[in-house]
Amino acid sequence: MKIHHLTAAEALESLGSSLNGLDDAVIEGRLREFGFNRLEETRKTSALLLFAREFLHFFALILWLAAGLAFFAEAQQPGEGMQTLGYAILGVIAINGCFSFWQRHQAEQAIAALQKLLPHQVKVIRDGELSLVYADELAPGDLLVLQEGDNVPADCRLVEALALRVNNATITGESLPKGRDAQPSDAEDIGQSRNILLAGTSVVAGEGKAVVFATGMHTEFGKIANTLKTTVKAQSPLQKQIARLSHFVALLALALGVAFFFIGQAIGLTFWENFIFAIGLIVANVPEGLLPTVTLSLAMATQRMAKRNALIRNLPSVETLGSTTVICTDKTGTLTENRMAVKQLFLDGHYCNPDQLGRHSLQQHAAFLGCAALCHNLKRIEGNAPLGDPMEIALADMAHARGMRIDYPKIGEVPFDTDRKRMSTLHDTPAGTMLFCKGALEMVLPLCRQIAAGNRIETLDDGHRQQLAKALQTMADQGLRVLALAYRPLPEEIPDNPEQSLILAGLVGLEDPPRPEVAAAIGQCHRAGIKVIMVTGDHPHTAVAIARQIGLVRSEHPKVIVGDKLKKLTPSQLQVALDADEIVFARVGADQKMQIVEALQRKQHIVAVTGDGVNDAPALKKADIGIAMGKAGTDVAKEAADMILLDDNFASIVAAIEEGRAVFDNIRKFLTYILTSNIPEVVPYLAFVLFKIPLPLTIIQILAVDLGTDMLPALGLGAEKPDAAVMEQMPRSQKETLIDWRLLARAYGFLGLLEAVAAMAAFFFVLDRGGWEYGQILHGRQPLYLQATTACLSAIIMMQIANVFICKQRQRGLLGTALLDNKLILSGILLEIALILAIVYTPWGNALFGAAPIGGEVWLFTLPFVAGMLALEELRKWLVRRFKLFPLRAEPARLRKSGRTRTGR
Ligand code: ATP
C-alpha cells in the first residue's frame, strides 16, 4: 500500500514517526541515509567550458581573425612589425578573456551569496516540541506544521488538516487552489490524492500537520527538476542595451578600420602601414569588455542593496528600482514597527487602560480576556517567544498578564482574510463549546445581537452602536489600531455558520509606533519625485493618523479612499483620483491592491508595491517591483516578489531605489571615461594622415590604454556609491538611453578633445626638443620617434587619471566630491601608474610597446594640461549648475506643479 492509502496513524508509523515527530537522536542518521533536502543542480556548466566561452564569443572571434591576419601578413611581408601586432592581439584576447571570466564569476558569486541571506526555515515538531529548522535539514519522518502562506518544503502526507487548501500550480499547472485533508485516499496517483502535499507547492489557506516521506531529489519536484535543463538567465533591459551598443560599436570599428584603410591607400601610404592601422583600430575599438563590466556593476549594486537590507531576486529589478515613480506601501510593519501593545480598552461604555483591568474584575471580563487569550493562530515554541502576528501576541500577553492563563483546545476556525477582516476560533471549554471572534468593528458588529455590560448582557441597540462608533473614531484618531472582540456559547450541534448572534465583549486599541527612520525616508521620496501611497487594511482614521505622524500626509484634508468606495470607482475615476498629491487607501482588501497598481500603471507610473500575504501575490507579480517582507512575509509572497526586505522596513525600499538610481549613473560614468580616450587615440592618426607627420601613437600603445590602463578605473567608476544628489532628481524615464548626445558631447567633444590636445602637444614637445622639423621623416625605431610616441601615450594616461575624478561627477565640482572614497578606483589608478612606468622605464616595456624612456620635463610639460582639463571641466560644471543647462531630469517640485506625469514606460 502506498502512503496515501494508509490512515494517518499508519502513515506516521510506517515512517517511524509519531505525533511527537522524530527524536532528535534519529535525525542525524536519517540525514546521512537520505541526504539533505536540496535539489542538486544537475547540469552545471563546467568552469572550464565557461572559461573557454570567453575566448569564443563574437568579439573574441573578430580578434582571432585580426591576429590571424597579422600573422599571415608577417609571413607575406616579414619585418613590417606584423608579428608584434599579432602577439599583441593574442595578449589582448588573453587579458580580455581572463578579465571577463573573473568579472562574470564575481557577479555570479555576488548573486549566489544573496540567496544565502534568507535561508528558508520551516516549522517542525521534533521530540514533541515545535521548532524552527532550515528546510534543507528535513528528513523523512519529520512532522511539519504548515499554515497559510507556507511553501511545502518536501513531499508529505497530511495527518491533521483544518480548512487546508493548496496551490499546485508549480507541479500540475492548475492554478485553482485545491482542498486537502488527512483522510486515507483510494486515488491511484499520489499527486491526485487529497492527503498529499508536494514539495514546491504552497498552502494558500488553513493549517495542518504533515509527515515528510520524500526529500530533495526524491520528491516529485526533484524528479521534474532532474529532467529540466539549467534555466536560461534572462538579460536585463540594461544588459540588452549594452549588448546592442557593443555590437553597434564593433561594427562601427570595423567600418572605421576599412574606411581608414582606403583613406590611407588613397593618400599613398604603404599597403602594410594601412593594414596594420586598420586592424589596430578595429581591435582597439571592439568593446568586448563592456557587457561583463555592466553585469558586474549590477551585481555589485545588489550586494550593496543587500547590505542595506534589500534582497534583489533578479538583476533587471535593480534598474527598474531606479525608475520607480510610485511606492504603494502597507502600513503595519513597513511604516510602523509591528511592535504592538494594547494601549486602551473600551469596555462597558468606558475607556480604560489594560492596567486598570484588575484581577478582581477578571470574572466580569472573562469572556473579553478569554477571546484575547484564545482567538489567535500563535504557535508556541518551548523556551521562545510565541511565533505569529504581533497583534495577537499583544492580546494574548494582555490576557496572560491579567491572569487569564487558559489553553482550551481549538477545535475549529473560520480563518482571517483581508476581505473578512475578522477571524473566529472554536474551543472546547468547561462551559461547553465557545466561539471567539475578533476583527474590525464594522465587520464584527453586524454579527452581534448583544453586548456585554459588566455582569449583564444587554441587547445591542442604536445607542450602543453610536457609542461604539464614536469610541472607534476616538481611538483611531490617536493612531491606534482598533479591534472588536466578541464571543458566543455554541449549541452542541454546531451551526454551519457559527459567526452569528455574537455578544460584543469590547474594543481594544493597539499602539504600533511608526519606525523612526521612516519619516526621513518619506522626505527623501518627496525630494526624489517619488509618490508614496499608503494602502492599508486598517481603519481610515488610524491610517491618516499614522500617515500624519510620518509626514506622508501634511495637508488638512488628504484624499482618503476606503475599500467600499474603491469598489464603486470606474477605472477612469480611479485614475483621476490618483492625481491627488496625498492619498491614503484604507480598509482595502488584497485584490484591491491589484486594482490600484493597474490604475497607476495605466498612468505610466513605474510602481513598487509591498505585500506579505498569500493574497498579495498577484499584486506583487503585477507591479513593476514587487516587494515582500522578509520577516513577516509568507513564502508565497516572497516567491512572487522581485525584492525582499530583510528588515520589513520602508526605509530600506528607499535605500534600494537610491542604489538602483546610482547603478545607471555609474554605468554612464564609466562609459564617459572609456569613450573619452578614443579621441586622443584617433586624432593622432588623423594628424598623421592629414598633415603627414610621424604617427604620434602606435596601435600597440592604443591597446595599452584601452585594454590595460583604462580597465580597472572604469570598473571602479561602475562601483561608485550613490551620490546624495541622485535622490534630488525626478525618477529616470525607462526610455532614457544610456548613451545620449550629452554624454557623447562631453566625452568626445570636450574631455576627449582636451586629452587629444595634451597628447599632441607632448608629442611635438619631444620632437621639437630633439630638433625635428616639419616634413622630416623619422624611422620607426629612431630613439627620438620612440620618445615622442611615449610622450604622447604618457600624456593620455595622465589625462585619463585626472579624468577618473572628473567622471565621478557630472555636475558637481571636485571640491564637493569625495575623491578618495572608492578603493577600486584608487587601486586602478595605482595600477595605471605602475603600468605606464613599466612601459616607459623597463626594457621589456619599451620593447613590447615601442616606447623609450622620457625625461622628467615631459611629465612636467603635461601637468599644466592636466590642470587645464580639471579647471575647464570645473568651469563647465559651474556653468551647467549656474544656468541649469541641459538638465537631465527635471526637478521634482517643478514637475509636480505643472501637473505632468511620467511618460515612457
Ligand atoms: P496593512 O495592510 O497596512 O498591513 P493591516 O494589517 O491593518 O494593515 P490587514 O492585515 O488587511 O491590514 O487587516 C485589516 C484589518 O483586519 C485590521 O485593521 C484589523 O481590524 C483586522 N485584522 C487584522 N489582523 C487580524 C487578525 N489576526 N484577526 C482578526 N482581525 C484582524
TrEMBL record:
The entry sums up its family as follows: Belongs to the cation transport ATPase (P-type) (TC 3.A.3) family. Type IIA subfamily.
Sorted alphabetically, which keywords does the UniProt record give?
ATP-binding, Cell membrane, Membrane, Nucleotide-binding, Translocase, Transmembrane, Transmembrane helix
| One Pfam family from the record | Cation_ATPase
> Is Membrane given among the entry's keywords?
yes
Q: How does it sit in the membrane?
A: Multi-pass membrane protein
Q: Which InterPro entries match?
A: ATPase_P-typ_cation-transptr_C (IPR006068), ATPase_P-typ_cation-transptr_N (IPR004014), ATPase_P-typ_cyto_dom_N (IPR023299), ATPase_P-typ_P_site (IPR018303), ATPase_P-typ_TM_dom_sf (IPR023298), ATPase_P-typ_transduc_dom_A_sf (IPR008250), ATPase_P-type_domA (IPR059000), Cation_transp_ATPase_P-type (IPR050510)
Its transmembrane ranges are 55-73, 85-102, 248-269, 275-299, 743-765, 785-806, 818-841, 847-872
Quote the subcellular location field of this record: Cell membrane
Record domain Cation-transporting P-type ATPase N-terminal: where: 2-75
Q: Which domain of life is it from?
A: Bacteria
Q: What is this protein called?
A: Cation-transporting P-type ATPase
Q: Which organism is it from?
A: Methylomonas aurea
Query: Primary place of residence?
Result: membrane
